[in-house]
Design a protein that fits this description.
Strand content: 5-15%
Shape: elongated
Number of helices: 5
Strand order of the largest sheet: 1-3-2
Oligomer: single chain
Distance between the termini: 45 Å
Order of helices and strands: EHHEEHHH
């Protein structure tokens, strides 16, 4: 079974050293309000030049983590913990370990939910068949 991302993942852009709010909103399909919310939550920290926000490649990378984490059901607190581990200076070892453990747990939870959904669908289909065959 081919694995397809639920949302395209933007590749890093090593030749860029800054991004405007408009650029990041367009690239990631989010609103300026969402970016300001993530800033208020301390998840990203753009530089301020007057009233203009200038986002660094680090902010862009953190935004990609935030959005991916949200898409798969992580809370902002969980996302913050995972992305903040980047700054430990251990070559991202702990960040990888925590992320793998959290993602593995999320996969297991989703598989259990899928099993429950499949069972409910099967039961409903059986019930529909039963009701259809017992018409007055």
């Amino acid at each position: 079974m081919a694995k397809v991302a639920a949302h395209p993942v933007s590749p890093p852009q090593p030749d860029r050293d800054s991004y405007s709010i408009t650029e990041l909103c367009g690239e990631f399909g989010v609103t300026a309000r969402a970016l300001r919310f993530y800033e208020d939550e301390g998840l990203i920290s753009p530089e301020r030049r007057g009233t203009q926000r200038i986002y660094s490649p680090r902010d862009r990378a953190r935004l990609a983590w935030i959005l991916r984490g949200k898409r798969v059901g992580f809370s902002l607190a969980e996302i913050r913990e995972m992305i903040d581990l980047y700054d430990l200076g251990d070559g991202r070892r702990q960040q990888r370990e925590v992320t793998i453990a959290r993602c593995t747990a999320k996969i297991e939870a989703l598989q259990a939910q899928k099993h429950d959904i499949d069972a409910a669908i099967a039961e409903l289909a059986e019930f529909v068949t039963l009701v259809e065959t017992h018409r007055d």
